[in-house]
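Please check these two lines:
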Amino acid sequence: MKKEAMLYDKLENNRVHCYLCAHECKIADSRLGVCGVRQNVEGRLYTLVYAQAIAANIDPIEKKPLYHFLPGSTSFSIATIGCNFKCGFCQNWQISQVSGEEGAILSGRELTPEQVVEEAKRHKCLSISYTYTEPTIFFEYAYDSAKLAKEAGLYNVFVTNGFMTRQALDTIKPYLDAANVDLKSFSEDYYERNCKARLQPVLDSIAYMKQLDIWVEVTTLVVPGENDSEEELRRIAGFIAQLDKDIPWHISRFHPDYKFGDHDATPVETLRKANEIGKSEGLHHVYLGNVLEGSDTFCHSCHELVVKRAYMGVERSKLSDGRCPSCSAPIKGVWQ
């Protein structure tokens, strides 16, 4: 469904300036932005994927991954095609790397914001997650859904690469409760080579989300030979700790896929080393992803086990009003 876009200005000669994401595309008439799903039509910018869901699933919130946000709950998760990154290691590339220029806009099924909220409530989900691809590029769809969700008493979650503008965050802020942000590297070169993007806007988004009081968790996919050096991991951990030592850091194992099929999977020992680095930089909560270990939550003060997780879920929780039962230290998060 085509709908006029938010967050753009008209320029001379039927050109438009989109300031939804940090690419800030200036788009000529009939052309699309980097995301492949926002098109200039005679001097007006349109989103081509409004209410056109390529995926709609009920997921455990731990799959996002969010470990300190309504643990043990389910989240109705939606996506459209398209992305503003071009990551060669993307594990959802079949839907994220599709462009309107390839005639795939009508992929998926129509699912209106009203229906998204109805489905979430029907399945007793506590939240709606805008995920799988990049929620920034289907912003209008996410915005309208999130507004209705908030009115219905549901929470809203972005699983995002963080490459949005401050204006976009200001616009979604009244309705956005939590975000997991991919911090893929601490190298501008890495972002340019592997994502066709830049690092600094991602760092700015993470910091600004914290300022806006959005609950933030950070994920780093550790790719052998690309971003797995001790120096790199320490810089990522140090940045997060400088913002807030209570931000959970998820260190995920890479599996060969898409254009990175010639890379090896991440050794588990590399993740364990990254865990040590995160703790040494002062982070209170570091988790391993895509492996069957390192998902439990411990009190950072007395080291008591407070949340025991099974795969993609909670086995038991000892938290009482968000505090450790042994020493009463607060475990930061959004708890039921």
